[in-house]
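Subject: sequence -> structure tokens, single chain

Hey, anyone have a minute? Need the predicted structure for the following. Not urgent.
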Amino acid sequence: MAFVVPDVLEEGCATRQALERLASKWRVLLVYALLAGPQRPAELRRRVEGITQKVLTETLRGMERDGLVQRQVLKESPPQHVEYALTDIGKTLQEPLAAICAWATQTNA
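Reply:
Had a minute. Here:
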């Protein structure tokens, strides 16, 4: 069976839309961090060096809208406590990201 390359240059291409969802380096790094399991925002900020609180919040909200992460409220009363976890769809990124890590390791060897 021949490998079919999608036309990612077309706006309606599903592959292009997926790439646009992950285009932010922060999204990919947050997926990596969340592969370890659910975490609170403060923990994510400590683990993902260089991300500001504002960018973390905006990125997590966008990832939630796209169905990659889910937000769970742990404590309703102020101060509110929440944690984020990958959804089933978000977890499917583990294998492609592992392939990118393997590629990066091989090309830098």
